[in-house]
Amino acid sequence: MRDKEKLLDEAEPLRFLFSHSALREGWDNPNVFQICALREMATERSRRQLLGHGLRLPVDNHALRRRDEGIARLTVIADTDYATFADELQTELSPTASQST
């Protein structure tokens, strides 16, 4: 993929990028808001890594973190097993869960 940095520019009209392997190739894009997992992931590690790409705070075109809850939301489209995994991980990482352990 060429010109990846252009995607951080708010003036860039491109708002959607489809790639079957961009998140596996080590591309560090903090502005991942939707993930569609079309294949089953066998390991917990691969599931955590994929979710981790979308759980970072987004950045603007000056590489400054944006704490805008309106855009800092990850949507995952996946099979039932992955949805269950994501729900359990969210519970594990929630502030109330860490206080009870």
From TrEMBL:
One of its GO terms (molecular function) is endonuclease activity. It comes from Novosphingobium taihuense. Keywords: Endonuclease, Hydrolase, Nuclease. This is Restriction endonuclease.
